[in-house]
Amino acid sequence: MPTEEPAARRRPARGDVVWVSAAVAVVVAAIVVPIVMGDDLQGRIFAGAAPLFGRWHPHLGPGSIPAVVIGAAAVMLFPGWASRLRWTALTITVWATAVAWTLSLALIDGWQRGIAGRLVRPDEYLAEVPGVHSIPGMLATFSRRILDHQPDSWTTHVSGHPPGALITFVWLDRLGLGGGGWAGLWCVLTGCSALVAVMMTLRSLGAEDWARRCAPFLVLFPGLVWVGVSADGYFMAVAAWGVAFVAMATHRRGVVGAAFGLLGGAFLGFSIFLNYGLVLIGFVVLAVLIAARTGRPLLVAVPAALAVAGVFRAFGFWWFDGYHMVVDRYYQGIASIRPFAYWGWANVAATLFAVGPAVPAGLGRIFGARMWRHPGVLLALAGLLAIVAADLSALSKAETERIWLAFSLWTMVSTALLPIGRQRMWLAAQVVLALAVNHLVLTYW
To answer: What is the pTM for the complete model shown?
Structure first.
């Protein structure tokens, strides 16, 4: 690994302060504006702890002490481990530590509210699982049940997503892993694997040094607050592994390269049947291809993705029909009341809670550097571009700390530009933020 830091990592901390201060200003404004505006705005934004979707409720729980201990240990140990451990050992350690920290964060709210009860509420996926007697039958009628105010309308979360999400939880139930506890653990275990997918992507593009530098920040990704437990953590993982497999295909030829391209296309194809917005992960895929200077993986990835879409279509669900129905359903609810004049920029504030102060500092160093073709830079900017596109769509008004996890994750790559000597300071800030959110706010979705 290189021992000399690029100029972008040696820049004075003054630039970091400017970027982080700007981010803090956006967050403070998003908190203060509803308070100053009073009931007129507060009654229309539907977020008791704006810009976060939740309500203020300082509390402790069984996960409080483990979360503090694991977070502190990761701050102290991971910078060293990231540079010394063998690659396989590092990826396993990243995943295992992230799982432990995510579960401890969730358990601050207790087992029932933090994990087992998250996905069984009346508006969640598991509420519909008992009624799915046949997956082909469900797919054939899925679009018809998206709109609200019908006797058989889908619940909020099921109607707001393609059927792949519901199918996943039906499969878990059929395998004997039914109920909120198993569903919650599934989301955490798969969601935390997305961190490894990011590292694998960087390594496949010849940037193992970046993967190692950002590994401690991935472990302490504040967005893990919402991975534990929401289905969006699982969605994030499927998309991230799709990107990783495409990256693995860029420098391999023959059967192995084709196999990785096939897997990448299948995962990416399935991801858009989990969440309509994941079409924007295409920006990250494009960044991978630009960084690798090849489009060869598309020869198998595109047919694989189309095959996934074809299977859904054969059983009666057409993605574009579902998307148009979801837009209508979205504005049947509180989205028609939530003002974009506030959420258009407050979404950014909410997302800053998911990425922490280290990302504004890292992105600031990217903009100040001349490294535009570096794989890490391209991936981070692609994640940022996906966030901008999602925001401009006006189909995400609030809850973006959770909804945009699949995009926010890639901006974490920018933390590789932070100086090694200051890593622990930034990591501590990330931990404090995640702990503060989980202890001060009762998050919900």
So the answer is: 0.96
Q: Phi first, then psi: what are they for 49, rounded to 5°?
A: -120, 40
Give the C-alpha separation, 287 to 246, whole Å: 11
Q: What is the pLDDT of residue 5?
A: 53
H-state helical runs in 50-107 = 64-84, 87-106
Among residues 229, 234, 230, 223, the alpha carbon closest in space to that of 107 is found at 229
Is the predicted pLDDT of residue 444 greater than 90, yes or no? no
What pLDDT was estimated at residue 165? 97
Residue 8 tokens read as: 């972008």
Burial of 156 (0-12, 13-18, 19+ CB in 10 A): middle
224-248 pLDDT per residue, tens: 999 999 999 999 999 999 999 999 9
Tell me the three state secondary structure of residue 35.
helix
Is residue 413 scored above 90 in pLDDT?
yes
Q: Residue 169 pLDDT > 80, yes or no? A: yes
**CB neighbour class for 442 (10 Å; exposed up to 12, middle 13-18, buried from 19):** middle
32, 40, 51, 152 from 46: Cα distances, Å: 15, 11, 10, 26
Query: Which one-letter amino acid corresponds to residue 383?
Result: G
If one counts every other C-beta atom within 10 angstroms of the C-beta of residue 307, the result is 13
At 74-95, the pLDDT tens digits run: 999 999 999 999 999 999 999 9
Domain ranges of the chain: 7-443
* Secondary structure (DSSP) of 357-389: THHHHHHHHHHHSS-TTSHHHHHHHHHHHHHHH
Identify which of 402, 441, 349, 408 has the alpha carbon closest to the alpha carbon of residue 160.
402
* Per-position DSSP letters for 227-273, written without gaps between them: HTT-HHHHHHHHHHHHHHHHHHHHT--HHHHHHHHHHHHHHHHHHTT
Length of the chain: 445
